[in-house]
Amino acid sequence: MTSTTPPDVAARVEALIPRFRLTRLLNQDQAGRRISLLGTIDSQPGVLVAERAAFATDDDHLSSFSTSLIGIKNLGANDIYAWFLASTALDEDQPPDLKLNLIYPCTDKHVKKYSAQGLRVVTETPEIYAKYIRPYMQQQRVQGRLNWVFNIIEGRTEQEDVIYREHGEEGFLLLPDLNWDRKTIPSLHLLGLVERRDIWSVRDLKRSHITWIKHMRDKLLDSTVKIYPNLDKDQLKLYVHYQPTYYHFHIHIVHVALEAGNTQATGKALGLDNIISQLENLQGDDNAGMDDVSLTYHLGEASDIWEKIYLPLKEGGKVEI
Amino acid sequence: MTSTTPPDVAARVEALIPRFRLTRLLNQDQAGRRISLLGTIDSQPGVLVAERAAFATDDDHLSSFSTSLIGIKNLGANDIYAWFLASTALDEDQPPDLKLNLIYPCTDKHVKKYSAQGLRVVTETPEIYAKYIRPYMQQQRVQGRLNWVFNIIEGRTEQEDVIYREHGEEGFLLLPDLNWDRKTIPSLHLLGLVERRDIWSVRDLKRSHITWIKHMRDKLLDSTVKIYPNLDKDQLKLYVHYQPTYYHFHIHIVHVALEAGNTQATGKALGLDNIISQLENLQGDDNAGMDDVSLTYHLGEASDIWEKIYLPLKEGGKVEI
């Protein structure tokens, strides 16, 4: 990147930066990697925004990357996994500006997981759902992959974590998501798990479930603000994934300030309240449901559903689940 | 952060990093601020993931931040705005690891814009929409704010940018979004603008529009892959915002690999294909539409709609638009 600024202007504005005197931090966002500072230069106010830059990815820099690091400090190690802080700076007064993860020795699975993966957008009609996706879900459910969910529901694990629970056919429970540190409120992430095993995903929600879903929504909100009293209900966002990671219906409850990455993106996440409203306004009787609509979402090209179902459908081949 | 690793283990894994020999870059994501490298240590494979860390925000570091920067290089300057690259590193062989923006002198509006803003989740029922939001939209439309849109539609500006166009009552045009650099395909971002002025937002879409919306969707996809032949239609994601930034119906067309930030999040973005399917399955006649459903979304606490409509509604006060 070259500057198009006249040299005298460039020199003048460059000289402004070191004269910036901090008044206060206005904001920190982008997962902490951007700060907006209010300050003064010659007693006039100014805003200085600093953002961590992208890594240079030319061969020279990548090849010397691991040897250029300073002050590598291990934070933890478990089996083949280890994590660290490190610096690109030679100045030891500066805080570490890098987080590192090392997987060593690694397998082909790790290489695949950390490689760039293409994404594809698919439209799942009610027909594709019934013919291919539902049987695929069934197959995934019988391989013991849901044991961890059943362990929670049946009271064998994580009982000390349960924030709220109702038992029975319409029962459900609320507990912290594994990715949340359980203390940082602006990144709060809880999970609502239903007890019943006949609702695998949003596709199984029907008009006849509306009262139940609303009850569940209200209780999830109420119990969250009860346990975290500095939180208001309108600071919570409820959504579900489609496709979800596992086929037992669950609701994500997050702080509305939580940095929304790919996991909350359209094409992956559906707002729970919008689903309720969609069900309420759906044509048909009580049996009408989310299996009557088309859902458009994106998938990794390395995912089973893409490889086994949508890619063959796209190429006119035979689907073998 | 202190390590819980026994000192001998910590020392052993810390010594692994500088011995990492690069094989290749596996991936770069998080807006370029995370790299995943494949390499070897003693001829065994390993994956090294490096991520730019959050800024330290204690007073000491923030106060000395502007004076600790090295190699400040101006990239451009316009009026009170200037942007730069800079380094936290003393090592001049390292590429700059920071981007800076300076607004100087700044106004209170800048301070507000760059300050942390709370978000609130609201549920907009058909009644709230009709009574408050639609009149608010009307008010926004008459203040000349849409002149830039009308300039494009009426052929006065940006005509050289138009990728595809159909004229008339059902007309629309496709052009690059201002935020796209017009060359980086994985961050492609185009805009579909309708010609007609009676569709202000997704709220105005009705069952009677389904054929038209599908035609528009197909043409937007077709013309995008025609002009960018390395792209497949199933690599494109179409969505709309609610609330949108301006009240003239427009569709966002983005590469599915585009880093999904808050702008694509549930509570802000709605997938176009899901809206089409929702309309198709909506109860009622041809006149039934998206103004019959509740839409739940989030708003900044500093936004007009929050301050003038939802906050008074929440507090039981009087709404004055």
From TrEMBL, chains A, B:
Family of the protein in this entry: Belongs to the HIT family.
Name this protein carries in UniProt: HIT-like domain-containing protein
Pfam family, one: DcpS_C
Active site, renumbered: 250
Molecular-function annotations in GO: hydrolase activity; RNA 7-methylguanosine cap binding
Superkingdom as given in the UniProt entry: Eukaryota
Transmembrane segments: none
Gene Ontology terms: biological process: deadenylation-dependent decapping of nuclear-transcribed mRNA
Gene Ontology cellular-component annotations: nucleus; P-body
Organism: Lophiotrema nucula
